[in-house]
Amino acid sequence: MIPTRRRTLLAFLLALSAGLSSCGGGGGGGDEAPDAGAPGGVGGEVVFSTVKATASGQVYTVQTFLPASYAAGSTRLPAIYVTEADAMYGANGQQSRFDAFKGVMQRRGTQAILVGIHGTARRNTDFLLPGAAHYLDFIAKDLAPQIERQYRADAAKRMLSGLSHGGYFVVAALVLEASAGTPSFSHYLSTEASFGGHGNTAGFLEFEKQLDASGRPAPATLFLAGAPGFNGTAVVDPLHAQMTAHAHAGLTLVKAQYATTHVGADLPAFEEALARFAP
């Protein structure tokens, strides 16, 4: 990791359009997430860096937000790993997913480290199988250990967040890891998950069954958020029902629905996740 410290008002490096999806992962139809609003609390620091994936050789830009209290503190903090940090989905496309999440954390005074991974342009490669397995290795084996060496990040309190194809990736990460061994994250935060590259929801549900077939425990929390009429109805509801019926040992399932749009569900879901898991 090659850190270059910047203050939070530094102009954003990338302005990539987030082709965020409805069910299958195509265009988002102009949906916008609501702005986080003017934060009630300010301060903190954003560090820009680059991290190379060992397996693929791909280099990712990473933004790390440290809350204002970090410099004077000594305790280890939860770390929230956010995919598509460079996705621009705020009002008039002027706010990135990372900045929107940072604003929520500042307003709430959340004591956690936010790690934003750029790569919206690679969403159809990194978030869907087979590429998702390599991307998961990058986050769990390259990025997270580096963050924990450099900052006071608690390895036992890692959270992984994704929207749409990113939401699919979060679920796939849990299924892949728990089927083979121990999950790398304590909390998996999936919003408006697509059915990924499985063709339809039935294919996604068939993929998820491997977790049940493995017979292994899944000691983690999966937060499934959605919007009725969008992927919340088409994907999240049937996925939650199937996983509830399987009653995976060690897995805590939480579901939430928001009366908004596909992309619009992202910020309220993140805020609820903070309230539940990082108060």
UniProtKB/TrEMBL annotation:
Transmembrane segments: none
Record keyword Phosphoprotein present: no
Keyword field: Hydrolase, Signal
Keyword flag Cell membrane: no
Gene3D superfamilies assigned: alpha/beta hydrolase
Signal peptide limits: 1-23
Top-level division of the source organism's lineage: Bacteria
GO molecular function, one term: hydrolase activity
Stored Pfam families: Esterase
UniProt xrefs under SUPFAM superfamilies: alpha/beta-Hydrolases (SSF53474)
PANTHER family listed in its UniProt record: ENTEROCHELIN ESTERASE-RELATED (PTHR48098), FERRI-BACILLIBACTIN ESTERASE BESA (PTHR48098:SF6)
Protein name: Alpha/beta hydrolase
